[in-house]
Amino acid sequence: MPSPPRVLILCTHNSARSQMAEALTRQAAQRLGVALEVHSAGTEATRVKDEAKTVMAEIGLDLDGHTSKTLWDVPDAQNFDYVVTVCDSAAEACPVYPGKTERRHYPFVDPSGGSLDRWREVRDQLKIRFDAFVQALGDGRDVPPTYIDSPAVSAQ
Q1: What residues does the Phosphotyrosine protein phosphatase I domain cover (predicted)?
Q2: What is the pLDDT of residues 125-149, one digit of tens each?
Q3: Using an 8 Å Cβ cutoff, are 47 and 114 in contact?
Q4: Quick one: CA dihedral 56, 70, 13, 80, positive or negative?
Q5: How much is the mean pLDDT over the chain?
Q6: N or C: where does the chain have the smaller number of CB atoms within 10 Å of the terminal CB?
């Protein structure tokens, strides 16, 4: 039996958007019955922001056990089926991957420094986009290369 597709969600600090997207992608995969191995990382490691923990707890997802990490802290860092960058800086700094890895860029507004409502908006947009990502994988369809058509997403 083949191993499930491996997905890496990459952001600059692995402190907010990528952490939320990792948890939401795992939740979508479980809900939709799609086998995935999901990781997140940053081009730099810092800490998981309290606001991310707060807005994710509101929808029943606990980020307390999550830690900020770099790409090189993730198991088998060069072996992913999909690498999804969620900020422009990470997209520019993302290393080259072997031919089998499909890169996707889903840029989201950085909620840092914003109100909890802004954090909730970004969380909700991440949920929409990564639910669609998982659904496409589950259906055997190509996942879109980017999502820049939504008001809450922006190319910073």
Answers
A1: 5-136
A2: 999 999 999 999 999 998 877 765 4
A3: no
A4: negative
A5: 88
A6: N
d(CA 116, CA 5): 33
Closest CA to 38 of 79, 72, 7: 7
Q: Could you read off the pLDDT of 51-72 as tens digits, one per residue?
A: 999 999 999 999 999 999 998 8
Q: Which residues pair with 39 in a beta bridge?
A: 8
Domain ranges of the chain: 6-139
> Is 41 in contact with 18 (CB distance < 8 Å)?
yes
Which residues form the catalytic set?
Answer: 11, 87, 94
Report the SS3 class of residue 41. strand
What are the residues whose beta carbons fall under 8 Å from the beta carbon of 148, sequence distance 6 or more?
Answer: 107, 154, 155
* 3-class state of residue 26 by DSSP: helix
Burial (CB < 10 A; 0-12, 13-18, 19+), residue 105, is buried
The Cα 103–Cα 6 span in angstroms is: 12
Cα–Cα distance measured from residue 46 to residue 101, given in angstroms and rounded to the nearest whole number? 26
**Cα angle at 18 between 113 and 60, to 5 degrees?**
85
